[in-house]
Amino acid sequence: MRKSLRAASTLRVLPFLIGLALAQPVYAVSATPSPVTLPSLYHAGVALGDYWVSEKYDGVRGYWDGEALRTRSGNVIHAPAWFTAKFPKTALDGELWVARGEFEQASSTVRQQPADDEAWRHIHYMVFDAPGQSGAFDRRIPALQRLIAQIDRPWVQAVEQFKVADEAALQRKLDEIVQGDGEGLVLHRGASLYHAGRNDDLLKFKPFDDAEARVVAYMPGKGKYEGMMGALLVERTDGTRFRIGTGFSDDQRRDPPPVGSTVTYRYQGMTSGGKPRFARFMRIRDEL
């Protein structure tokens, strides 16, 4: 009897899941990803004197290639002409950011086509590096500040870079940022050249770990979530598959992230089987 009920429930939910899969938009994949540096996780024992520290802004990554703003994957961000009118012919790297805790507003604004002029009035371009400038990060900081001064627009700001004396001071700064609804900190090695990919020249320090995975399927909801998505089946780049079943609003369960899209999730360490512990959905990765 229980098997029959379970089968009947699956049959009721199956058309919903099939409909979701067919209705999902195909995410564009650029053949030329932006050559951005990606952070690794901070770990105790890092030689802090070698690093600059800054706030980690919770926005949409925006890489200015000298002609257009692009996402990490190289897709063009259709900003209003006035927003980038005084940008230089050299590369900039930063976050399109509204305010602490306002990621969804930033993401919605950046995705909208054509650009919503009024919504873009709330966007700041928080620039943390100048890839087009030569030399180590120590030298790129003043070069970046000169570029931002030349742009001379209030919505374009150079991210403040500072030093900390020790791990206790770093932890105090993290606590201050998080208590103010910020996301965390970024550490950037002063001697590093700008190069694409993930490495220890750039480190993120947050009160929890986060990572990305690709959505491969939906698991049907049960109880109050019957008829909606119950969990996402996702896959990491190493092929490991696991489920993410928490962190979703009811609207997101009714209209879940598209199959094939990349989502960001938070977790607390790894299981003995190599899977993230307590994986919780955060957001769809910032792509157009």
Radius of gyration, in Å, reads 21 Å
Number of helices: 7
Give the CATH superfamily of the largest domain: DNA ligase/mRNA capping enzyme
What class would the helix/strand composition place it in? alpha+beta
Give the total of beta strands: 14
- How far is the first residue's CA from the last residue's CA? 47 Å
Notes on the structure:
The protein is an alpha+beta fold and 288 residues long. It folds into 2 domains: 2-29 and 209-284, OB fold (Dihydrolipoamide Acetyltransferase, E2P) (Beta Barrel), CATH 2.40.50.140; 37-205, DNA ligase/mRNA capping enzyme (D-amino Acid Aminotransferase, Chain A, domain 1, 2-Layer Sandwich). It is built from 7 helices and 14 strands. The chain has helices at residues 2-23, 81-84, 103-111, 117-120, 137-151, 167-179, 250-254; strands spanning 37-41, 51-56, 60-64, 69-70, 92-97, 124-129, 156-158, 184-189, 197-205, 209-220, 229-235, 241-244, 262-267, 280-284. The strands form 3 sheets. It has a 5-stranded mixed sheet with strand order 4-3-5-6-7. The longest helix is centred in the first third of the chain and has 22 residues, at 2-23. The N and C termini lie far apart (47 Å).
